[in-house]
Specification:
This protein is of the alpha+beta class and 442 residues long. It has ten helices and 21 strands.
Length: 442
């Protein structure tokens, strides 16, 4: 539909009236007010249509007009509500429903405006301007998943402020600010590090690819890989339809592929038409596989479970290949990272005591490990708070440095006091807590 004189008024009304009314009813919460706002918006469209210069999407322009009209109408209703409150005290007129409705609306908008900007802005763009997730992500320069999370958390915060749900998760910190679980989780989730997989599918929409952070092996036998997909994604329906999918673990030189696969939906863009993607036919599934990845795994759907706002699709691996020359890309917070050098294990000793009571003269199980173990083995002894020591045994170690064995406690070991079980490996040692009870072993 073109702008200006080419517009057919009847076509304008039939196409945009439902969208305008839907936004008006959400903002004003009353059918009569929403109908008034819809009529005023349509009149403004006819009046100002010649001024539209395609500087933004037409739908966005229409929703901005709708938003402004609704806010103006709300301001008029707010003033009327204040007058009604004053009049009602003297006249007792039949205005309680009107007062209650306008009061609820005022409270809702105040709660919305009181939200932090990172929640208020995505909520407004999504519910007021009816922008899709990906368009909001582009406008705010955020990942799509972050937009979804902030909208979801914004709704929860709005419900708490309005008293729709309680807020047991809010706990005060050392300052005067109260942190909700939504605030905490946004910081916590940045500490997780994940790989990125390109998930390929084939279905009624044709071949498709999406980028998924939550992808992991979940079983050795059978070899199972799980990927978590939002029901909003086209891939979700494709997997249910075809009962198969491809997992392509991205290498650190495939960031452009990740951006393209994660930035658009198959309902709008054929992402695999881009020359960035080099594909090859799979052996056991119909979905294409992506070249240049660290791992390529062909999966048959094994199980699927809805977990919160995502579905866990578990696939049995039918065939897999890997490229040792490639390194996986790591996602942490809002950035991508390469694997660094392997961390060297410290030359330490650890020891622990087996389950079961420890009694004087009884036997306890001791397990542990000494990295770079000495040839003579590991000596096991007990230390009391007074400094007294009891040497119990020397345990041999395996080539990996692990050791285990049953050792007998002395009959004169004190009970009821904190003791330390010590494993000595040369000059290095590890300690475990030991509590001996009073009863003697038979």
């Amino acid at each position: 539909m073109a702008a200006g004189s080419e517009w057919d008024p009847a076509e304008v009304a039939s196409k945009y009236r439902p969208l305008i009314y839907r936004q008006a009813i959400w903002l004003l919460r009353h059918p009569h007010d929403a109908e008034d706002a819809t009529q005023e918006v349509l009149m403004k469209l006819y009046r100002f249509l010649p001024q539209f210069r395609n500087q933004s999407k037409l739908t966005t322009w229409v929703y901005r007009i709708t938003y402004n009209v609704c806010m103006n109408l709300f301001e008029k209703r707010r003033k009327a509500w204040q007058e009604l409150v004053w009049v009602n005290e003297d006249l007792g007129v039949n205005s309680e429903g009107e007062i209650e409705r306008l009061g609820d609306l005022l409270g809702m908008l105040r709660a919305l405006y009181d939200l932090p900007a990172k929640y208020r802005v995505p909520l407004g763009l999504y519910y007021i301007l009816d922008m899709p997730y990906k368009q909001i992500a582009e406008r705010l320069n955020l990942p799509v998943n972050t937009v979804k999370v902030r909208i979801h958390r914004g709704i929860r915060l709005l419900q708490r402020q309005l008293g729709v749900i309680s807020d047991p998760d809010c706990q005060p910190d050392c300052s005067t600010r109260r942190w909700s679980m939504s605030d905490i989780m946004e910081h916590v989730e940045r500490q997780f590090a994940t790989g990125i997989a390109l998930v390929t599918t084939v279905g009624s929409l044709g071949p498709n690819v999406m980028a998924a952070e939550w992808t992991m092996q979940v079983s050795y036998d059978p070899f199972l890989i799980a990927v978590f997909v939002s029901p909003d994604e086209a891939t979700h329906g494709q997997i249910l339809e075809s009962e198969e999918f491809g997992i392509n673990i991205c290498s650190d030189d495939q960031l452009a592929l990740i951006a393209l696969a994660g930035g658009y939906t198959r309902r709008e863009v054929d992402k695999l038409s881009s020359e960035l993607f080099e594909t090859y036919p799979a052996k056991y599934i119909k979905a294409p596989m992506i070249k240049g990845c660290v791992v390529n795994a062909e999966c048959r759907l094994y199980a699927h479970h809805r977990l919160g706002d995502h579905t866990a699709f578990v696939g049995e691996v039918l065939a897999a290949t890997y490229d040792e020359s490639k390194r996986p890309v790591i996602r942490r917070g809002h950035g991508f990272h390469r694997l660094g050098p392997q961390i060297e294990r410290p030359r330490l000793v650890y020891v622990a005591v087996g389950s079961g009571p420890a009694v004087p003269g009884g036997v306890i199980r001791v397990i542990g490990r000494a990295f770079d173990p000495p040839a003579e083995g590991v000596r096991i002894l007990i230390e009391a708070p007074t400094g007294r020591q009891w040497v119990l045994a020397t345990l041999e170690t395996t080539p990996r440095g692990t050791f285990s064995g049953d050792v007998r406690l002395p009959d004169d070991i004190p009970s009821g006091v904190p003791l330390a079980l010590v494993a000595l490996a040369g000059e290095r040692f590890g300690r475990a807590r030991l509590q001996v009870v009073e009863t003697k072993a038979p």
